[in-house]
Amino acid sequence: MGRAFNFSAGPAVMPEAVLQQAATEMLDWHGSGMSVMEMSHRGKEFISIYEQAEADLRELLAVPAHFKILFMQGGGLAENAIVPLNLSQGGAMDFVLTGSWSQKSHKEGGKYGAARVAATAQADGFTTLPSPATWQIGADSRYVHICGNETIHGVEFHELPDLKTLGCDAPLVVDFSSHVASRSVNWSRVGLAFGGAQKNLGPAGLTLVIVREDLIGHAMPHCPSAFDYKLVADNQSMYNTPPTYSIYIAGLVFQWLKKNGGMAAMEQRNIAKAQLLYDFLDNSSLYVNKVAKDCRSRMNVPFFLRDESRNEAFLAGAKAANLLQLKGHKSVGGMRASIYNAMPIEGVQALVAYMREFEKTQA
Ligand SMILES: *Cc1c(COP(=O)(O)O)cnc(C)c1O
User: Fold this and answer.
1) pTM exceeds cut of 0.70
2) Nearest to 351 by CA among 295, 271, 279
3) Which of 259, 281, 313 is the last residue of a domain?
């Protein structure tokens, strides 16, 4: 069996060209006589890899000069603690609950200060997004947290809220783990964005934090030094050893994204892929997606078979057709197709063709 179409939610599909290049460079990077994973993070070879990756990412996402880009470790879940340790000063925070990931962030935030709920879509089974006009944000809020794309429930903010128009001066914190680099970011609305790399940027082990400079330097005294944004920023993400190999691979992904037209082109491709799949689901009598149309994720598409007794047969047939990792998250059930940047439209076409055939056999 050759390479399959891989619909995993994360760690997830990588661009084949990147894997090929990494394979070519595995034993001897650019005549250095070393693999990247054998290099000192303080040597000139790795510093050049790091600086290129940072510059490419800044250009790709159009990150303004007054934001720092930090390459950290610990994943999205560690940031659920690291963000309040750096931003809350022990005060109150407001969370918008739109699915499993924002719920987790809210729960963890409560260890470090008063974690309030500004709005929740729980009554809708997390198939909608609460309108920002309805959010209850305290005047003393240190920050407002949202999850830009709920990887498990499949809802996505297609526009970031403008907190200023809600009369709120607090910074917006966005968990963009599962849609980072799938679309452009309106940085004027963001204070801090974080995400693990393993959905859309590269291998697990790297966590990206992009933070406005004025929010750095306010960590609580008991914040671990390695997680203090000021120490991380002042040391170019090398206060301690960064995840060097993951940074290198992410850097190759950034170059691949630039070569393929950057965010504007990527966004158009992602819209086309998502539309193909949602249109098929909406016209099917076997499959159903339950998310409100205006907040459906372009990255993670959960769907159900109306006859759930066919789930195992569906997955077995998909696997035989080289369509992998379509099983839904256990908390939601059903199926989920994650269609990140590195999933070509041919993969979505193959999935739809398989689903159409499977539906025919169910009549
Ligand atoms: C995957 C994911 C996380 C958790 O990331 P880890 O790297 O496993 O800590 C957090 N938030 C979102 C939105 C995710 O998709």
Assistant:
1) yes
2) 279
3) 259
* Active-site hit among 29, 56, 135, 199: 199
| Through-space distance between the first and last CA atoms of the chain, rounded to whole angstroms | 30
pLDDT at 362 over 90: no
Q: Identify which of 345, 340, 296, 287 has the alpha carbon closest to the alpha carbon of residue 314.
A: 287
Q: Is the peptide bond before 221 cis (omega within 30 degrees of 0)?
A: no
Paired with 114 in beta bridges are 92
172 in the same domain as 308: no
Probe residue for ligand 1, chosen from 79, 102, 151 as the CB with the greatest number of ligand atoms within 8 Å? 151
CA dist 362 → 278, 287, 302, 313, 354 (Å): 20, 11, 20, 11, 13
Rounded Cα gap, residues 327 and 311, in angstroms: 9
* pLDDT tens sequence across 298-313: 999 999 999 999 999 9
CA-closest candidate to residue 257, choices 341, 346, 333: 341
Residue nearest to atom 3 of ligand 1 (CA): 76
* Nearest alpha carbon, ligand 1 atom 4: 76
What is the phi/psi pair of residue 246, to 5°? -65, -35
Measured in Å, residue 342 CA sits from the centre of ligand 1 at 18
Provide the domain limits for residue 321: 262-361
CB 34 within 8 A of CB 244: no
CATH of the domain at 337: 3.90.1150.10
pLDDT, one tens digit per residue, over 94-141 is 999 999 999 999 999 999 999 999 999 999 999 999 999 999 999 999
Query: Could you tell me where the DSSP H helices lie in 283-329?
Result: 311-320
